[in-house]
Write a structure and sequence with these properties.
- This protein is an alpha+beta fold and 205 residues long.
- The protein has eight helices and eight strands; from the N terminus they run H-E-H-E-H-E-H-E-E-E-H-E-E-H-H-H.
- The protein has one domain: Peptide Methionine Sulfoxide Reductase, Chain A.
- The strands form two sheets. A six-stranded mixed β-sheet has the order 7-6-1-3-2-8. A two-stranded antiparallel sheet has the order 4-5.
- The longest helix has 18 residues.
- It starts with a helix and ends in a 12-residue tail after the last helix.
- Keywords: Oxidoreductase, Signal.
């Protein structure tokens, strides 16, 4: 990626991330890894994470709805915006958690969910995150000894999903548990990663 394009992308991401300035003692990262219900649940179990928001990123339609995104025609991915305390954790640790809660070898979707909106991807907000994501991807490829299909692209506008999607694993616990079990995420992550499955998390739901 050319430096000039990267610089523009960083500016766009910084402006579009939130309506107000982030507090000095927090930082933000954006991850896509299949159904945002599961990714949000997993990151809620990561030390230092203060808040998670399910949403959409990477598409061409402004203010997309779930119904629009689920048609797989808008280019958006389901993603989670993670706000964390940099005094407790950092982007590199969140990357470690992210890799080990997903299947980086599957670029068509995750677990039982397939289509553009479920493809795994990292959306760095600045050059430091971009460089860290690229370096981490290389190391994960070595660890798995397989090609890594997860994409990396500078963040564009992140649109929060509808209220009923937020904290779904808590507000609709029975539905969520049935979905996660039926999708087979835990078993597939554990089969891929072995003892390092869900590394960096204090449990998972």
């Amino acid at each position: 990626m050319k430096k000039s394009r990267l610089g523009v992308a960083v500016m766009v991401a910084a402006v579009s991330l939130t309506a107000g300035a982030q507090a000095a003692d927090t930082a933000v990262a954006i991850f896509a890894g299949g159904c945002f219900w599961s990714i949000e649940s997993d990151f809620d179990h990561a030390p230092g994470v203060l808040d998670t928001t399910s949403g959409y990123i990477g598409g061409t339609v402004e203010n997309p709805t779930y119904e629009q995104v689920s048609t797989e025609t808008t280019g958006h991915r389901e993603a989670v915006r993670v706000t964390y305390d940099p005094n407790v954790t950092n982007y590199e640790k969140l990357l470690t958690a992210y890799w080990h809660m997903t299947d980086p070898t599957d670029g068509e979707g995750q677990f039982c969910d397939y289509g553009d909106s479920y493809r795994p991807g990292l959306f760095p907000l600045d050059k430091a995150q971009y460089d860290a994501a690229e370096a981490s991807k290389v190391e994960i490829g070595k660890e798995l000894t397989k090609p890594v299909a997860t994409t990396i692209a500078m963040a564009t506008t992140f649109y929060p999903a509808e209220d009923y999607h937020q904290n779904f694993w808590q507000t609709n616990a029975a539905h969520y548990k049935a979905y996660r079990a039926g999708c087979g995420k835990n078993a597939k992550v554990e089969a891929l990663w072995g003892q390092s499955a869900f590394e960096g998390l204090n449990g998972h739901e």
